[in-house]
Design brief:
71 residues, mainly beta, five-stranded antiparallel sheet, globular
Length: 71
């Protein structure tokens, strides 16, 4: 899973899977879900991210730490 923030558009993209998306659905104003060809969620786009989420802190809970890759 990857988090990428685009300052110029104030957009946060959460890449759930490394598969290409073929369909997108806006589920709320500025919140878009991307799906692969099998209907699986591949990513989440959040527009106006600074107004929607607290970008100053990323917290994880109960993740399998042995499997994490830090880049």
């Amino acid at each position: 899973m990857k988090f990428e923030y685009f300052n110029e558009t104030d957009t946060l993209y959460i890449d759930i899977k490394d598969t290409p998306s073929v369909e997108s659905k806006e589920i709320s104003h500025g919140i878009v879900l991307d799906f692969d060809s099998e209907g699986n969620l591949t990513g989440i786009e959040i527009d106006n991210a600074r107004n929607v989420a607290n970008l100053s802190k990323i917290e994880t809970k109960s993740l399998p730490l042995n499997d994490l890759i830090f880049t």
